[in-house]
Design brief:
- The protein is mostly beta strands and about 450 residues long.
- It has three helices and 39 strands.
Length: about 450
């Protein structure tokens, strides 16, 4: 009875106590804290850790931030360039309270933000030291960061339930040259898991050994990004503990996706299905993407019995490289061609016809012409030339543009798909309006 009374008094006093306002903890030369780890240890939920550049823009070295609080914001102070953080020389072992990443957000550290940093040099003996690791945390946002030359760029995971790894957001980031030649093919620019992850307005390129984007998440959404020049596939969207649930979808909308003509590994562009023996029950939605590949390997490969695909308004080009026998689609592992459908896609090159699918032959024309199609690919400009007129006058219906929602994300009013387009580097701009809905990811060049 006494114990119950004590608990009641504690709860009442806690409810009546004034809220402690969020604090800003400053890190850098002449500030209260010299290292980010020190500020993290003193921070309370809701605080902002504001990090200033070191003198002469030297990096913060051997940084290892093991986050335990909710609603923290780690923000670089305004500066001409991102605040640099190097993990070189530190072993991101994951043992005890040692993180596997420069910043690691653990279960329960929901609603945290990481913004404005350059993260490089994270390695460990398992070849999976990451710039950032989201370890079962929910509603984590990574914004305006450059993440390069780590074993992994960003790594995330859940626990196979709907309650972990929810609503991960990666926005306006440059993620490149991550991987470890000592363990080739097993480390990637992004290796995602959990319930839902969304990548927006990012430049992801030049994975050193693996894929640009590998995901085992229940729901993966990639929108208005530039994903290119991977050592293997650009996207490897495969099975895991979270994908056996129904509606384990992937959505790619408004992306520019470009294969390296000298790609040393798997030359396929997008793989949706299995590589680990677990079920993958869902649909990959490809809407308004520009895809450039000179290779005969398939643009899209399905490899699970319950995997389906829906293709609408995509522009697929050989990039001006003549290669006979190019393939748009391939299936294996129990997947069926009849589960692939869509309309109003434009194929530019020597692509073979796809029999057995439900793709509408009338609105999916193939053109074997080599006239320049894009504004200036060498300068990352994939806007259509004015003279490159699509043979289709396309107006996609609201039903065509409907996409499955991201589980756990706020259901705020969203723009109609195709309202934005990628702007290099790692930015966005409004897509110019035209009388008809446009094919591909970009409007025409002025």
């Amino acid at each position: 009875m006494i114990r119950s009374w004590s608990v009641a008094v504690f709860v009442l006093c806690s409810a009546l106590a004034p809220c402690v306002p969020a604090a800003t903890l400053e890190v850098g030369p002449g500030k209260r804290f010299a290292r980010i780890e020190e500020a993290n240890a003193h921070a309370r939920p809701g605080d902002v850790i504001l990090v200033y550049p070191r003198d002469h823009d030297l990096p913060y070295e051997r940084t290892a931030v093991f986050v335990r609080q909710t609603r923290l914001t780690f923000r670089a102070a305004p500066a001409p360039r991102r605040v640099s953080i190097s993990g070189q020389g530190f072993n991101y072992s994951g043992q005890g309270s040692v993180p596997r990443a420069i910043f690691q957000f653990n279960r329960g550290t929901d609603h945290c933000v990481l913004e404005g940093f350059e993260l490089t040099g994270a390695h460990n003996g398992s070849h999976n030291g990451a710039g950032v690791r989201i370890n079962q945390a929910n509603h984590i946002t990574i914004r305006n960061c450059e993440i390069h030359h780590n074993d992994m760029g960003i790594m995330s995971n859940g626990d196979g339930t709907e309650e972990t790894g929810v609503d991960q957001r990666i926005e306006h980031c440059q993620i490149h040259h991550n991987g470890d030649p000592a363990d080739p093919g097993h480390n990637h620019n992004l290796y995602l898991g959990g319930t839902s992850a969304t990548l927006s307005f990012c430049d992801v390129h030049s994975s050193l050994t693996g894929h640009n984007v590998k995901s085992r998440a229940h729901h993966t959404r990639i929108q208005y990004c530039y994903v290119h020049h991977s050592s293997n596939r650009e996207f490897d969207l495969v099975d895991g503990a979270d994908t056996a649930r129904p509606e384990s979808h992937a959505v790619l909308v408004g992306n520019i996706i470009v294969k390296d003509p000298q790609c040393p590994g798997n030359r396929g562009v997008i793989h949706f299905g299995q590589d680990g023996g677990k079920e993958h029950d869902g649909t990959i939605h490809l809407l308004l993407n520009t895809i450039v590949t000179p290779h005969i390997s398939p643009v899209l490969e399905l490899s699970a019995a319950n995997a389906k695909a829906r293709l609408l308004g995509n522009l697929v080009s050989n990039g001006g490289v003549r290669q006979r026998g190019q393939r748009l689609l391939a299936v294996r592992g129990g997947a069926g061609l009849a589960s692939i459908g869509g309309h109003h896609n434009w194929l530019r090159g020597d692509f073979e016809g796809e029999s057995g699918t439900t793709l509408d032959a009338r609105t999916n024309p193939m053109q074997r012409i080599d006239a320049p199609l894009f504004g200036d690919p060498a300068r990352h400009d994939y806007r259509l030339r004015q003279e490159a007129r699509s043979p289709l006058d396309v107006v996609l219906s609201p039903t065509d543009l409907a996409l499955p929602p991201v589980p756990g994300a706020a259901r705020a009013r969203e723009d109609v798909p195709g309202s934005w387009q990628y702007r290099h580097p790692a930015d966005k701009e409004r897509r110019l309006g035209e009388p008809a809905q446009k094919i591909g990811a970009c409007s025409r060049a002025p």
